[in-house]
Queue: 2 jobs
Job 1
Amino acid sequence: MQRTLIPCPFCGSQQAKLSYPQRCVKCAECGTCGPTGETAEQGARLWNHRATVPAYHPTAPLGLIGGH
Ligand SMILES: [Zn+2]
């Protein structure tokens, strides 16, 4: 059964593919790797979940997050 993967949340590409050895989804367009699951199926689920929540920016200065 083929799980439907939503487009890449970073570049919008439909070229996100489930990578079985790594158990995560990788975008062929920008190279983004989704969260690694315990199984490939879980990796796909995490990818779809992550893409529906606001993008997390690990490089954003802390002062911009939750500041008053
Ligand atoms: Zn991408």
Job 2
Amino acid sequence: MSDHEYGIFLPIGNGGWLVSDTAPHPDGSYAYNKKSAILAEEAGMDFVMSMAKWRGFGGSTDHWGRSLESITMMTGIAEATERVKVWATVHANVHHPAIAAKMFVTLQQVAEGRAGMNIVSGAYADEFQQMGIWDADMSKDARYRMVDEWTEAVTRLWTEDSVTMDGEFFTLTDCESRPHPENPLTIISAGSSALGRDFQARRSDGAFLSGSTMEELRTASRDVHDRAAAAGRDVKTYGMLTVVLADTDAAAEKRVTDIGVGVDREALANMRLSWGMPADRVSSWTESATGIDAFQTPYVFGSPDTVIGHINTVVEGAELDGIMLIFPDYLEDIPPFGESVLPVLRAQDASSEVSA
Ligand SMILES: Cc1cc2nc3c(=O)[nH]c(=O)nc-3n(C[C@H](O)[C@H](O)[C@H](O)COP(=O)(O)O)c2cc1C
């Protein structure tokens, strides 16, 4: 077993990944994200990553109503950190590849080689309808062809002095983009369909997967690993996990219960509408929603031992190369995770390497 990677999903949108009036509420500011990134670096994490979001979900929490722009925020964080990898998200449907190529070369210089680019296709209509740039007639298949061509354009601009291409979506004519990055950027992709996994296997170095059960995650992880191997490539797979840590299991369980009390059903319903769930299904979902629906991702609660056991079960059971962690209160929760959980996970990886 090789070393696993652990990083954090920065709370670039207010509220982070808990949708509840009774949860801690990261404010989405640069100051909060910068402190979180520095704490993650001090804790010994491998990466910090931020998403790109253009519209929130309302409700009593105004969930993600306030969010900064990912690439510029991560450029500041690159300057504020020294060792941790800094991964920013870019929408292929928003930024022209020649613009994105330069923005990420800039990030890579500031980060002195630690930068990564998380490429997303822009799947949520509401975010782009408000800007007048949503193409309702574009099929998902076409969207991934666009992302593929976009990625080819960016990577060619990073390595060739002049690029001419007449593609289905982008036209470049003697297009120049210097300087080229001195160190290659890590390419990440967060898609979950078969089309998304195909793109991840062919074009990315790291794939963020979503799955509500361990079996779903394992199937997705195997699929990306297998497709990548067939293409002679090596792609790392990552899951997401929210960690609610306390000294004892009982104290952690109380944190989860307290978070659930104020679940913001309205914001959660708006989120589901934005994913394209039909309105009648959203209203029946809303009626049956419970406190744990405040958690947007799989989660674990417990003492350090319980959390370590669960993380081992997930990374091994789902055959993952790493996990992107979410915390209710990043500023309070990262230091104890760095003291009592991460060193044990690292020691386990080190000893399994020795015995392998
Ligand atoms: C870890 C992770 C991060 C994501 N970040 C973003 C993001 O920043 N912006 C965005 O529009 N979509 C984001 N997505 C959504 C994906 O890009 C993708 O649209 C979604 O997983 C559906 O997958 P599909 O397009 O393959 O169907 C993210 C998904 C995951 C799992």
